[in-house]
């Protein structure tokens, strides 16, 4: 089946629940989970010892990769919800596994500068030699980023995703600031919510139709869609934000343009900058190009000294989209909930 689609020209495969494809060949029962609490998803009442992340998966993944490598420039992406030390095993012992084992840490961690700095360092430190990192900010199984971190921080989250080292994965609608949508009981579609209602496990709120414009059904369909569109669709949509130079859509486009035009962002190395409090900062460097990314996760202003980083710097982009590109700076004064990318010169970090 892989070869059938690869011969037809597909670029690759995103393999669903990759770490769960193989079960114990002796049909042993999973042990009960002593930490299980009422209200948690029902499958959490067991420790998936015999149904998840089995040792046999290494051979299965290597086999999938061998088939994919019969074709040029194809990719395997694995959906894998595992701790980092187990996740990185899916790169394979000699990078003969999936090229991108999905890294879902940003979906599952508290939105805290110090905690996220630690998880970036841990992930970078545990990647196998030559393993290419990746980051996921939103997907179809988790609340939307705007619902998790709020309107003010959604722009900071966008800058984080598109400046970290590795391949970023964006979820449709996040680029226009779509929010979770309350789903009336009669409109529920997710089998998870239908099977165990009332536990807040339904994923429909983050799966509502893409909001293209302000017309009926947000321009998604001439017929009523299977899920309701958000009440704010007449303002939060591609058409209206396309005309707004300060919109979050404009920010995503500026970030993507910078990423394509600056090797430091697309392929450069990652170097953390020592910070405290609500500030996360790092330097990306490649081809004699050094870019500072500074992200304020808090509502209060933050002053970042550049003395140990660079002699001079100039602003490239602010999440507020109101700083003039090319403006020289001696220090970086960040407003609350602001992220800034600056080009550095002078002293090495």
Structure in words:
This protein has 349 residues and is of the alpha/beta class. 24% of the residues lie in helices and 17% in strands. It is built from eleven helices and 13 strands. The chain has helices spanning 2-7, 57-68, 84-87, 105-108, 113-126, 145-149, 151-161, 191-195, 238-242, 248-261, 263-266; strands at 12-15, 75-78, 100-101, 134-136, 167-169, 269-273, 279-286, 289-296, 302-305, 312-318, 328-329, 331-334, 339-345. It has a six-stranded antiparallel β-sheet. Strands 1-2-3 form a three-stranded parallel β-sheet, with helices on one face. Helix 7 (151-161) packs parallel to helix 10 (248-261). The N and C termini lie far apart (50 Å).
Low-confidence stretches: none
> Strands of the biggest beta sheet: in what spatial order?
6-7-8-13-10-11
Shape type: globular
Radius of gyration: 22 Å
**How many helical elements?**
11
Major beta sheet summary: 6 strands, antiparallel
Keywords:
six-stranded antiparallel sheet, 24% helix, alpha/beta, single chain
Reconstruct the topology from this structure.
Layout: H1 2-7, E1 12-15, H2 57-68, E2 75-78, H3 84-87, E3 100-101, H4 105-108, H5 113-126, E4 134-136, H6 145-149, H7 151-161, E5 167-169, H8 191-195, H9 238-242, H10 248-261, H11 263-266, E6 269-273, E7 279-286, E8 289-296, E9 302-305, E10 312-318, E11 328-329, E12 331-334, E13 339-345
Parallel strand pairs: 1-2, 2-3, 4-5
Antiparallel strand pairs: 6-7, 7-8, 8-13, 9-12, 10-11, 10-13
Helix pairs in contact: 7-10
